[in-house]
Design brief:
isomerase activity; EC 5.3.1.9; single chain; Glucose-6-phosphate isomerase; about 10% strand; 23 helices; glycolysis; binds 6-O-phosphono-beta-D-fructofuranose; 6-stranded mixed β-sheet
């Protein structure tokens, strides 16, 4: 690796806010803020045809953003200043970009074709990946075709993934997104929360003789997952008259930690591994995706991986100006750093993508919710914004009012598909999917161009209502279209956002691959458990609020 890049990877002290590119963008924003989106379209009438990028099967229109050709040039200069392309190449080559944990971040290897070679720390990781994939494929085949049975010899009908965070959100989102591709006999369930309501509600639907539990945890030390897995094991043993031999038929583990898996009581023959260079929120395409593979089959899972890989290749090879993850990353930080946007909406016009915004919340907010650089210096700019969203058209009848006329600038990604996986005919003979997509197109149009006072008056709207009905427009959106929501397209979408998140982190100079911010809460929760449960709890807690709250809770619980 270029020694300069190696130095930047290990101790990045570039202050991006002190660069000429940053100052140019500040000046440019002041100029652009005086113009409306409709002015940009008037000045560049072909924007809708020109400000588009095709990446694998995704057709992305970014013309309805508050940016013109000059903006894009300045943003590209910013990316070059931050050496985004070199850092991308370093990540793809297995450099230890996760500096605080001294690890590579090599999720791209999880979707590398079998004939690729990626030697990291002296080891070809692609061969390892395909060995595990083959084992996952054989196991899923056995569950799907009924060769793997429960303790009474019946085929598996229900698969329960027990995991949390990256060990839950990806499989749960994918199971929903690929509803159309699921095995007809096998239902998927996802237990994550330490709230007993989660596991109780799930077990209530299940037959122990035909249920398979997948305990998914990278570390195999996560409190929520281990408790839920113990509850499930107890439930199974109760139904099986305490016969411990049934565990091997009904529990498998996915983890990097064989010792803890064995300590939990799961035979490591029933364990599928992955590696420390796979971050939790980047792990759907590792063994963590086992529940999804069982649901949709190994071939569809292979298509999902191929979709990831196609976007990886686009990210690796396309020049900055035509590179979808880089462009979307730069536009995202254009709004958060130069327009004070504090959130970003993701609005899938596909009900099957209901969990996609929640999945992206972990990907983006756990990756880039940081305020210090890799070198440990305070970051002088805002980093990740809040990501949120709901499928259209539900969102239209809930929060779009604020998108249209509220006082915040909230950039939004609209995601839609040309073909539904199943369509329905409306009573007048039309396509229900066309109704859905006409809402997609209408919303992005109205957000961009609004409705002016002049037009309202010309329509004869009562003068006192005019100010209420004015739609300001100039609300930025990016439209992401694809032919259909196939496994491959889902992989492409996820990889698009993974790399977009990476690009932003590289410009800010932060490490997107650690998550120290979630650790303290876990440690304090463990310490507080004793206070919560012990009626004789001695000294008051340091702060009067937490102390009084726990006392109130204990009293309410009769302690
Ligand atoms: O919330 C912190 C976190 O470490 C996530 O990054 C991770 O996805 C999740 O917990 C679950 O961790 P594990 O897979 O080790 O159980």
């Amino acid at each position: 690796m270029d020694p300069d890049i190696a130095a930047r990877v290990s101790n990045d002290d570039l202050d991006i806010t002190a660069t000429a590119a940053w100052s140019d963008l500040l000046d440019h924003q002041r100029d652009l803020a005086t113009r409306q989106m409709r002015d940009l379209f008037a000045a560049e009438p072909d924007r809708g045809r020109e400000m588009v990028v095709d990446a694998a099967d995704l057709h992305i229109d970014y013309s309805k953003n508050l940016a013109d050709a000059h903006t894009l040039g300045l943003l590209a200069a910013l990316a070059r200043e931050a050496r985004v392309e070199e850092l991308r190449d370093a990540m793809l080559a297995g450099a230890h970009l996760n500096t605080s944990e001294d690890r590579a971040a090599l999720h791209v290897a999880l979707r590398s074709p079998a004939d690729a070679r990626l030697v990291v720390d002296g080891h070809d990781v692609v061969a390892d990946v395909h060995r595990v994939l083959a084992a996952l494929g054989d196991f899923s085949d056995a569950v799907r075709d009924g060769a793997w049975t429960g303790y009474t010899g019946k085929a598996i009908t229900d698969v329960v993934n027990i995991g949390i965070g990256g060990s839950d959100l990806g499989p749960a989102m994918g199971y929903q997104a690929l509803r159309y591709y699921r095995h007809p006999r096998i239902r998927g369930h996802f237990v994550s929360n330490v709230d007993p309501g989660d596991v109780i509600a799930t077990l209530a639907e299940l037959d122990p003789e035909t249920t398979l539990f997948i305990v998914a945890s990278k570390t195999f030390t996560t409190q929520e997952t281990l408790i839920n897995a113990k509850v499930a094991r107890t439930w199974l043993l109760e139904q099986a008259d305490g016969d411990e031999t049934v565990i091997a038929k009904h529990f498998v583990a996915v983890s990097t930690n064989a010792a803890e898996v064995a300590a939990f009581g799961i035979d490591t023959d029933n364990m599928f591994g992955f590696w420390d260079w796979v971050g939790g929120r980047y792990s759907l395409d590792s063994a963590i995706g086992l529940s999804l593979m069982i649901a949709v089959g190994r071939d569809n899972f292979a298509d999902l991986l191929d979709g990831f890989h196609r976007m990886d290749e686009h990210f690796r090879t396309a020049p900055i100006e035509a590179n979808a993850p880089i462009l979307l990353g730069l536009l995202g930080l254009w709004y958060s750093n130069f327009w004070d946007a504090q959130s970003h909406a993701v609005l899938p016009y596909a009900n099957d993508l209901t969990r996609f915004p929640a999945y992206l919340q972990q990907l983006v907010m756990e990756s880039n919710g940081k305020s210090v650089t890799r070198g440990g210096r305070k970051l002088n700019a805002a980093s990740a914004t809040v990501v949120w969203g709901e499928p259209g058209t539900n969102g239209q009848h809930a929060f779009y009012q604020l998108l249209h006329q509220g006082s915040w600038l909230i950039p939004a990604d609209f995601i839609g598909f040309a073909e539904p996986l199943t369509d329905l005919t409306t009573p007048d003979g039309g396509s229900m999917h066309d109704l859905l997509m006409s809402n997609f197109f209408a919303q992005t149009e109205v957000l961009a161009f609004g409705k002016r006072e002049r037009a309202l008056k010309a329509e004869g709207v009562a003068p006192e209502l005019v100010p209420h009905k004015v739609m300001p427009g100039s609300r930025p959106t990016t439209s992401i279209l694809a032919p259909r929501l196939t496994p491959s397209v889902l992989g492409q979408l996820i990889a698009l956002y993974e790399h977009k998140t990476f690009v932003q982190a590289m410009v800010w100079g932060i490490n997107p691959f650690d998550q120290w911010g979630v650790e303290l809460g876990k440690a304090v929760a463990n310490a507080r458990l004793a206070v919560v449960t012990d009626p004789q709890s001695p000294a008051p807690l340091p702060d009067s609020s937490t102390d009084a709250l726990i006392r109130w809770y204990r009293a309410a619980r009769g302690r």
